[in-house]
Amino acid sequence: MVREANLKKKMAGKPLNLIINISEMTTLTNNFSLDEMIQSQTALRNNLDNTPNESQIENLKGLCENVLQPLRDYYQSPIKVTSGFRSEKLATLIGSKPTSQHCKGEAADFEIPGYDNKEVASHIKNNFDYDQLILEYYDESDKNSGWIHCSFKSSDNRKQNLIKDKSGYKEWI
Questions:
Q1: Is the separation of the CB atoms in 106 and 59 below 8 Å?
Q2: Do the bridges between strand 107-111 and strand 160-165 make them parallel or antiparallel, or are there none, so unpaired?
Q3: Which of 90, 103, 105, 120 could form a disulfide with 56 if both were Cys (CB 3.0 to 4.6 A apart)?
Q4: Which of 3.40.30.10, 3.40.50.1980, 3.30.930.30, 3.30.1380.10 is the CATH number of 2-171?
């Protein structure tokens, strides 16, 4: 909301069509906003700009349109995005790589509270087009454990399925 207030100040006196186009960019799909996909407490605490460029916004929109929104519609329940877009500086700060698909706007980490993360990830695996799907730190004895990482590219999606735990990555068949 602060970002939108600052944007409104910058846009004062600008042509209405320009204001509408920028406003449209903040809504990616019916249930996902740009602000939601770029929010980062770590970026805020460290005074880092975590604003994506136009290409990264388009990638976020593709991820929301092709994975997150259809998943939201299927489960009829809100999705909690814990990590979406990451600037290269943010990625480096948290120990990730600047080459991460998060930095391109192609990936998100999330869960649907109250639903088994493995069940949700299996639904994605069996029903959606995606580039990479990782069930991270899931414990069979606790359906609320871990989270889901999923990425989407506009073309050439690999449909790579992985499980990540303390010992590393393994293929999820």
A1: yes
A2: unpaired
A3: 105
A4: 3.30.1380.10
Phi, psi of 115 (to 5 degrees): -115, 145
Give the pLDDT confidence of 132-169 residue by residue, as tens digits. 999 999 999 998 899 999 999 999 999 999 999 999 99
Strand ranges in the chain using DSSP code E only, listed in sequence order? 80-83, 107-111, 132-136, 147-151, 160-165, 168-171
The pair of structure tokens assigned to 84 is: 């979406």
- Here the tokens at position 38 are 């770029």
What the block records as the tokens of 25 is: 């960019």
Distance CA 131, CA 97 (A): 18
Token pair belonging to 77? 């329940």
- For residue 23, what are the contacts with CB-CB under 8 A and spacing of at least 6? none
Of 73, 50, 76, 67, which Cα lies nearest the Cα of 108?
A: 67
**Rounded-to-integer distance, Cα 83 and Cα 108, Å:** 6
